[in-house]
Amino acid sequence: MAHDPLHLDHVNWYHDQVVFLTGATGNLGGCILYKLAVQLPTKKIYVLCRRSFEQAMDKWEASMPEQVEEIFDSGKVHCLIGDTTEPNLGLKKADRDRLQQEVTVVIHGAASISMFQELHEAVQQHCSPMANMIHLASQLAHLQTFVYISSISVCMLLSDGTAKEQFVKASADEPDPEEQVASIMATHSSPYSDRFPTSYSQAKYLAERLLFAQEGSFPILVVRPASIGPAIRDPYPLYGVPGSTPVDTAIHLFTQSGVYRSLSGTRKFSEETVIDEIPVDLTANGCLLHIACGSRGIVHLGCQLYITRSLSDFMIQWQKYGPKDMELRIARLNKERNGALARQAYEALYRSHRGWFFDCSRSQPLQVTEGPIGLSLANHDFEQYARLRMEKQGRIWTQQMKIWDSHVD
Q1: Looking at the predicted structure, is the pLDDT value of residue 265 above 50?
Q2: What average pLDDT does the segment 290-302 reach?
């Protein structure tokens, strides 16, 4: 049962919670881990580490070098070696037993974020782990909420317009998700692929269908973030795992290849096309708030909870705060460098931002919440955030260009 979001101590709700978190070395997962360990009174956090603890630690030290010690000094984090693609998550029996007896909240965020995988590869990366996570969840004695971090791109099977916080099937006579997954793995194709902007979106959609088929077995919350941008504040300003912020990645690809020149001139794009993006820490806050509120079903987290920006806005910010010698440097590049990948990114960006309005009404009452997991934007200086972000990306871009210039010379 959902609680009154305006009369709930969202922070102290976590006092007795034991969380099982997958994807903790990723962009959003790392931010959630930081908040659970440092900012919330979480009782215990079990983190699934693929391959080894050392590899996970290397990733945390790279993405959160100043915060790692604080996270583990909390004494709350317990790392378990396993793999979401393996039966029983590849966990030792003793570890499975601990989870079964202790876990109250599951946050499943482990996923490949590649937009350009073959369909069968994307389905393997998203749907096999979901089946394994469902099997685990069915065995948890004290489970209060199973949270799946999906993607707002799942809604893009719809025509342009308002995408509500609800589940919509690709077709009224669509086969069961298990049947579709088996067919895709056997044939490497699907009759519904043209309904989705990317294989990633379709795989996320099928993973959602697998999960909702279990509705009634345990409480389910599906969180669909829009494109995730750098952090406003936590774990630190502009936090973001390299390659995990789609807009920044697209800017680099476009400018490195020359594709950026046609962005505003093409008939496909309007300069007023909304690029739906939300900072990673607001995304983490929205997820954690809805868990505390007892939310069920589907929740969207997008720019309606932050600031709505158009393609033109991003281009103006890049031109205003980016490298001043950008045009000269690009002129020296081989225009085919990264060209194919940039065109892929360009097409994906177009297909993902055609003209939807992503409804975020379930989170709007929470926009007054403050504190470590609040959605309030009080005292947030957007212009400074935009300037620092573009300056940082400019430094990265300039360094890469210097490397390429040396090869050209």
Answers
A1: no
A2: 97
Cα distances from 254 to residues 136, 250, 347, 393, 397, in angstroms, run 42, 6, 11, 13, 11
Of 250, 391, 229, 238, the closest CA to residue 306 belongs to 229
End-to-end C-alpha distance for the chain, whole angstroms: 65
| Domains of the chain and any CATH numbers | 5-241+278-303+356-379 (3.40.50.720)
Q: What is the mean pLDDT of residues 90-106?
A: 98
- Segment holding 220, helix H or strand E: strand 220-225
**Ramachandran quadrant class, 212 (left: phi over 0; alpha: psi -120 to 50; beta: rest):** alpha
Provide the pLDDT confidence category of residue 58 given band limits of 50, 70 and 90: very high
Asked, as a colleague might, if the bond just before 191 is cis with ω within 30 of 0, I would say no
Backbone angles phi, psi at 268, to 5 degrees: -65, -45
Which tokens belong to 330? 């690009």
Q: Which stretch of DSSP H or E encloses residue 267?
A: none
How is the chain split among helix, strand and coil, in percent rounded to 5? 50, 15, 40
pLDDT at residue number 321 = 84
Reported as a single tens digit per residue, the pLDDT across 332-353 is: 444 444 455 545 555 555 555 5
From residue 232, alpha-carbon distances to 107, 145, 369, 376 in Å are 22, 27, 16, 12
